[in-house]
Fold each of these.
Amino acid sequence: MSKGLDRRKAILSDPVAQFERAVEIREFENQINALFASGTIRGTTHLCNGQEALAIGLASVLRTDDPVSATYRSHGIALALGITPESAMSEIMGKATGCCGGLGGSMHLCDLELGLLPTSAIIGGGMPIAAGAALAFQVQGNDRVAVAIFGDGATNIGAFHETLNLAAIWKLPVVFICDNNVYAEYSRINLTTPIEDLHIRAESYAMPHFALDGMDIDVVREGIQSAVDRARSGGGPTFIEAKTYRFAGHSRADQALYRPEGELDSWKSRDPLLLLEERAKKSGKITDAQIADMKVRKAKEIEATVALCQNAPEPSAKTMFENIWSRKVSQ
Amino acid sequence: MPAMRVRQAIATAIADEMRTDPTVIVFGEDIAAAEGPFKTTEGLLEEFGPIRVRDTPISEMAFTGAAVGAATMGLKPVIEIMFMEFLGVALDQLVTEGAKMRYLSNGKLSVPMVVRASVGGGLGFGGQHSQTLENWVAATPGLKVLSPSDAQSAYSLLRAAIQDPDPVMFLEPRVTYAERGEVDTNLKMEIGKARVVKPGKDLTIVALGQMTNIAREAAAASSLDIEVIDLCTIVPWDKKTVFESVKKTGRLVVVEEQPQSGGWGSEIVAAVSAEFFGELKSPPIRITCPNVPVPYNGGLEARFLPNATEVNYLIDQLMATGKAPQPWWIREGF
Ligand SMILES: Cc1ncc(C[n+]2csc(CCOP(=O)(O)OP(=O)(O)O)c2C)c(N)n1
Ligand SMILES: [Mg+2]
């Protein structure tokens, strides 16, 4: 089995492994942030700190042949699904060893073995794609399920509404997960959207819908499992609103000074990492001392990944002309 | 004359129009309270208030169409599409609705709106946030398409665009936002009028947006006396200025930041070829990006974009052989 598939399997049920993956994602994001800040990485990046439980919960419920259509804010989802830190980080560094050969960057991760479709950096862009994947499964008569995961801000774009309606009337095996992290760029969701509970939008498409606590992995798993079960058994789409919080700014330059005072702290008291740590301890499979060791180990692993990726080769000019069409045509 | 950054020149142009014309309103994503993701709307909310300066939801189709509708009823909306690619989800409202309003109302409706969008590569934003997509909008009758290259042209062209009674697509090269230049706020630039930014007699370069800066750099480094024309307006483009220049130099090179296929440069080369058939000293050529998406990797993105070294290499080849030279990707066998 590949490294990625092993990594996926590891987090399917073990609360310690799930916690460990969350620590890995947090370390990864913090390193990425530092690399951007130091100018080592160019372009832009969108961190998922605060949204780890949703990512890992989702990955632990899906099969690897269930495709996920996600966004530019998907380092955590990719790692949760099983992509290796080297594969993701070298992509973000633009290296040939990255999951897109260094041609995609932070916003465009992909690993088809693990079900990660190319992530889209256009708001709503991945939603019709997920519906289309689900359409394929319906026509093919198999029991695969497609997932679209997108932000709160995406609920205001046309593709959102068109896709929900289409998926509903065709009863497609798709699960829509709105990661409501309260902000779209520099705008708090209440400034752009007249309702607080975004999942009720699915009501007008006669689609089953509910909100869940996106900081609590057990709640996440249970909710997504029920939606996946419905889709797999021919019951059609479900809309889930996961209430999370974006701990970082929107993208690397953003200090997020527009937040109401105390909001970040109050969400941080329910940091998914704290909850996952408690849960891991409760399982009786790990002690405080082992947790401390694990955290140090993870930090070292990610540091080593940074070094490895920094030394990885750059893509050659030739690669920019590949994968344009099925067969190369010189122009 | 004050020196300002391109992004400040843009904010200043909008503010100056808003001061003189109360029908000008501004909206887009995070342009009011946050003053724009690229700070191109700095100070506008504070000075003009939330009725005229508005943040929108992430709903490009709705707010582009709302600009069309508001324009038909007497306002002059200036809207911001953060990255040109996002126009994709709103294209209908601009090209199929807005650009057709005058025609389909038998001339009764005007759509005096400006769609500003940041365009272009060079900053590592990857395949979905780095294109100029000039050709998306260049083939829509009814639309005017402009692109500034520096602070002065950003200021003067944007004012002209806001004053214009027709829908204008205003393409702002993102790499220039932080560049400084002197701005004469009394200087007027007209839509449809190109600028000769460097006179010369040996060869004419026609460029647009950031490629004007590349062309200037190439001209400065060349042993030839190159004339550089900043086209400023793609539609309707300034035949007179281009023809006069080519008449003088006998040679045309167009530099475009977009894939080779379907670029506006083909239009210019075709018109020049037809006008000066038999009189040109060398074949008119286009220097473009290859027909591939914009690569993220820094080294590859730099190769993807036309640069002064490549421009001068191709010009030298053209001068030496009298034949159209091959772009780097053909020379290197890609
Ligand atoms: C069509 C389109 N419009 C605008 C943008 C610019 N943009 C990038 S991220 C973002 C905010 C999205 O917020 P949300 O959907 O809540 O996702 P989050 O960033 O919180 O994960 C915006 C407006 C875009 N990428 N695509
Ligand atoms: Mg959000």
Amino acid sequence: MDVGQILANGIVLGALYACIAVGFSLVWGVLNVINMLHGSFIILGGYLTYFAWAYSGINPVVFLPVVALILYGLGFAVQYLFINKVVSAPVLTTLTLTFGLDMILYNVMTVVFTATPRRITLDLGSVDFFGVILPVDRVVGMALALILTGLLYAVMRTSKIGRAIVAVRMDRQAAELMGIRVNRIYAITFGIGALMAGAAGAVFAMVFPVTTNLTGAFLGKAFVICVIGGLGSVPGALVGGLALGIIESFSGYVLGPQHAITVGFVLMLILLVVRPTGLVGVKGYE
Amino acid sequence: MAEPLLEIEKLEAGYGDVQVLWDVTMAVEPGEIACIVGSNGAGKTTLLRTISGLIKPRGGTIRFAGGEIGGRAPDHVLGGGIAHVPEGRRLFKGLSVRDNLMLGAYLRDDREAIEADLEKVLELFPILKDRARQDATTLSGGEQQMCAIGRGIMARPKLLMIDELSLGLAPRLVDRLGEALIEINRTGLTILLVEQDVMTAFEIARHAYVIETGRVSMAGSTKVLGDDPRIRQAYMGL
Ligand SMILES: Nc1ncnc2c1ncn2[C@@H]1O[C@H](COP(=O)(O)OP(=O)(O)OP(=O)(O)O)[C@@H](O)[C@H]1O
Ligand SMILES: [Mg+2]
């Protein structure tokens, strides 16, 4: 396999990774909550899209906004009902809480959907781009992932809600003095995190098989990407995601695919020591 | 005498086991500039925080524009017309000057009026216009204070409370800010100023309340208080 092909595979994977991590990064950065539910949110989004497609036969892209909205509602409710009660507690408390909620969601999903890997097959063929061969569904998935990530960036930068989220992140009390209801912003932020997870899952199911067994792997990847790219920014998640995708692609080729994940984690450990702020330092949430 | 805009009676407030404010009674007339002065730790900031709803009062009443606001949440108090420019400016890092100013108008949705108010703020403090796209926390101290005041104005309040206008600023800048406040006040905005620097406060304000260890120890017109030997000795070093 030539370098161009490996790189292209890495970029496709990396775009999906960025989309997977960006919501996790937002929640961690703004709420200081490490959301253990994130992996399950992704899989839930994937399954919902899969079954909607399987039963209706309609193009799954149509379901993406619906699934995203359902996940938003779920995330908002989880934050509002549970996490807001303990959000100012030490990070371990919220970690334990989301861990517990994740066990519940995971089990419910396993019972309802079973752990059978599911994949939407679109049969779009593949394109040959200067000798690099890419399946069209992957290109579509990459494009969707980048569009979603870009949309989040735009919302954070230009909307009133985006400004309020940054304000709450930077100075909770001063934000209150602006009339911002902090608990509401927390719930919205968590909702957006879940929305991005659900959307990422929907995209993922169009490209790779999804199964509940993957929730931990997704969570782990989101974690690694945040550390690589730096916490709390869309560009950080994008850089981290692309970096991880490309690294996995190359190390998978050189060392064998079974070692690709290990390499990602080793890299994370090195970065933690050398550059704890990640490749893209923390500024406002952008 | 007109009905006071803000009327506080027998207010008690504090943090946890510590009571800071004791039996505070004061009033601010509509259209005036009033000030609260007192030394470090007297409870001035605590008083403003209680008014703006960051702290719940333990007793007493806070009436504003005829309605009781004691214990109401900050968004309610701000929506009712009291903006609080906090001690130390507290601008939002990572957001531009413009975004910081726009956050002042968070509760409003009258888009055109917001844009018009933004223009007015930028006219009042032209330097902010040049810095509009810059991260607000990279401004100089004086510019940050202008931005913080502008952010307060963007809420279009009836009462603007400013905590420590002069903190850490050169005298010339403080004069400049004082003039700006007088200018804003002329447009009908009532101002409550909190200051450690009594000279500055008395130059700008018409009425003053002196707070000592959480109690109002003296009150009156700044003309009269400014000649009071106790004030001159304790707060002006004269
Ligand atoms: N968050 C807090 N928790 C506990 N005690 C506090 C808190 N904030 C202030 N205090 C105490 O309340 C008292 C009054 O503080 P406050 O900040 O209101 O004074 P101040 O008059 O504004 O002082 P300064 O002029 O230094 O700003 C002080 O004794 C202070 O230690
Ligand atoms: Mg103070």
